[in-house]
Design a protein that fits this description.
By secondary structure, the protein is mainly beta. It folds into two domains: about 80 residues, Immunoglobulin-like, CATH 2.60.40.4130; about 90 residues, Sandwich (Immunoglobulin-like). About 10% of the residues lie in helices and about 45% in strands. The strands form five sheets. Strands 1, 13, 16 and 17 form a four-stranded mixed sheet that branches. A four-stranded antiparallel sheet has the order 12-2-14-15, with no helix packed on it. It has a four-stranded mixed sheet with strand order 4-3-6-9, with no helix packed on it. The chain is globular. About 5% of the residues have low confidence. It binds copper (II) ion. The site of copper (II) ion (CU) has 6 residues, from strand 7.
Length: about 200
């Protein structure tokens, strides 16, 4: 088989895999949220499918005594870089099981330390130098997830066609779920109203 044939096959494969993928969009209503509610919407475990974590690291920054972004969803096995962008020291630790109750230590401006999240679950990120700081890493079973924007809207792109359970995560509100069917083209919709 010549190179041209191989490239044609690869191109067709790319074409079909993108053709049979859709977008899930919707709105998440969060009682009490006046700005971005920072809700996560994700496709739950797909039967018989395991996903390789991305080679590229995710980033959680520390800027003006805040974890940025406030909520970072990642696929299980993803390595997150924790960067300090402030001109003073920060620490990162988590009391949660999903982060193996780590304490990464303290470091100065421009430096970063990394951690690979081995299991699904939520983990709060805290800084023992600034008790007001709080961020969240949400470790998920599939790469199909999104965080709500400032209006509570979300869009999960490139989801392969199929029927799935969609779930929500919010730091204070109860999880909700919905069944969704992604067609071979176009958009599926799922709105949620979360409860306390
Ligand atoms: Cu700090």
């Amino acid at each position: 088989m010549g190179k041209t044939v191989l490239w044609t096959c690869l191109s067709l494969l790319c074409f079909f895999s993108s053709a049979f993928a859709g977008t899930i969009t919707g709105h998440v209503e969060c009682p009490g949220a006046r700005t971005n509610p920072w809700a996560v919407v994700y496709v739950d475990q797909m039967s018989g499918r395991e996903f390789s974590p991305p080679a590229e690291h995710a980033l959680m920054d520390q800027v003006a005594k805040e974890f940025v972004p406030h909520v970072l969803p990642v696929l299980k096995g993803t390595t997150v870089d924790f960067r300090n962008s402030d001109p003073f020291k920060h620490n990162v630790f988590s009391p949660d099981e999903a982060a193996d109750e780590f304490n990464l230590g303290s470091w100065g401006q421009g430096e970063k330390r990394s951690y690979t999240f081995p299991k699904t679950g939520e983990a709060v990120m805290l800084c023992d130098l600034h008790p007001e700081m709080e961020g969240w890493i949400v470790v998920l079973p599939t790469p199909y997830f999104a965080v709500t924007d400032g209006n509570g809207n979300y869009a999960i792109k490139d989801v392969p066609a199929g029927a799935y359970t969609l779930k929500t995560w919010h730091k204070k509100l109860k999880p909700a779920e919905a069944q969704v069917t992604v067609s071979e083209s176009g958009e599926s919709k799922a709105d949620f109203t979360l409860k306390k």
